[in-house]
Amino acid sequence: MKKILFLLGACIIFSACSTGDAATSTLMLKSSSQALVFLNCRAVSEDVIEFEFSQPVKVTSLSFDPVLSIDSVEDGSTVRVKLAQSAEPGIMLIADLLAEDSKKNTINVLVSLRSRNNRMPDLVINEICTEYSNPRAEFVELKMMSAGNLGAMRLVILGNTNATRRTIYEFLPVEVKKDEYVVLHLRTTDTASRNEYGSNLAESGGANSSPTARDFWIPGSTKLIHKTSVVYVLDQDDNVLAAVMLSEEPGDSWSRDYFTEAAEFLYLQDAWKSADGNICNPSNAVMSRGTTNTRTICRDETVKNTKTSADWYITHTSSATPGRENNPRRYVP
């Protein structure tokens, strides 16, 4: 449903309410001291979506792309939309909503959002490659600790030039099984590198791809991870599902404030800490000095996840295992 409005007292909003940062552009056709403003939207459950406005409104039309059947609409400052059936978890939706306030001021909102995914799996970050060697890209490997769906899950990396939290990759819906490996390659090296959202896990032929794990590829060739980096996975509510902090130098001062802020954020989320249970600092992050493209940073899969550097080691030369169980042979400087 597309509309072009040339109405007094009307405004058109183009916005994004998907996971991650929202971008909003507003065109006001008539202003007032109490202008009607669209504030936010979110999927609160698999079959309920809410739209927030600065004052009560009445919805006059609403549609979704892809098409979703609507069971009921509850008007007000928070418009509550009940779907006739649950949407697929984590899919991108475009909502086209037309509403008016008590003074007949009209607002048209065209907004994108992700459907609710309450089935994100338990997982751990399992192996990290911070170094590039053509054609083998850097990668982050995840291991599923339970079955679920990856839709709307996000991977974030902070490090060097990445001073603000930035989503490196947002997953589309795909079912995963317990103990399954997922490899996110941090650049695309050739045309055979394909995202494996289907049932064929051998579809991707890129370097370091695995025929038994799901491979995903970030477009381009920008370096996204360094030996001093923060890596974590977020759900739709910004809860941290898994995290790891890397430091190339034990005495690194972490002069860049965002490392200290990230350490506190992860500590408060109970996602990463020092061995003594306090907030992480450079001396008790995972030491990454000595890593290469084939000497990767690995989690010890034989021990309980303590969310500390004690779980991690650098594997021996030529022992990287993207998409497979980690090689227990350890690098000794």
What do these coordinates show?
The protein is mainly β. It folds into 2 domains: about 10-115, Sandwich (Immunoglobulin-like), CATH 2.60.40; about 125-315, Lamin Tail domain (Immunoglobulin-like). Helices cover about 5% and strands about 35% of the residues. It has 1 helix and 21 strands. The chain starts with 9 loop residues before the first strand and ends in a 19-residue tail after the last strand. Mean pLDDT is about 90; it is low at about 1-10 and about 20-30.
Brief synopsis:
The protein has about 325 residues and is mainly beta. The chain has 1 helix and 21 strands.
List the helices and strands and how they pair.
Elements: E1 10-16, E2 25-28, E3 38-45, E4 48-65, E5 70-74, E6 76-83, E7 92-100, E8 106-114, E9 123-129, E10 139-144, E11 148-149, E12 154-158, E13 167-170, E14 175-176, E15 181-185, E16 214-217, E17 230-234, E18 240-247, H1 257-268, E19 286-287, E20 297-299, E21 312-314
Parallel strand pairs: 1-8, 15-16, 18-19
Antiparallel strand pairs: 1-2, 3-4, 4-6, 4-7, 5-6, 7-8, 9-10, 9-20, 10-15, 11-14, 12-13, 12-17, 17-18, 20-21
Descriptive terms for the model:
4% helix, Immunoglobulin-like, 1 helix, six-stranded mixed β-sheet, elongated, single chain, mainly beta, 2 domains, disordered N terminus, 333 residues
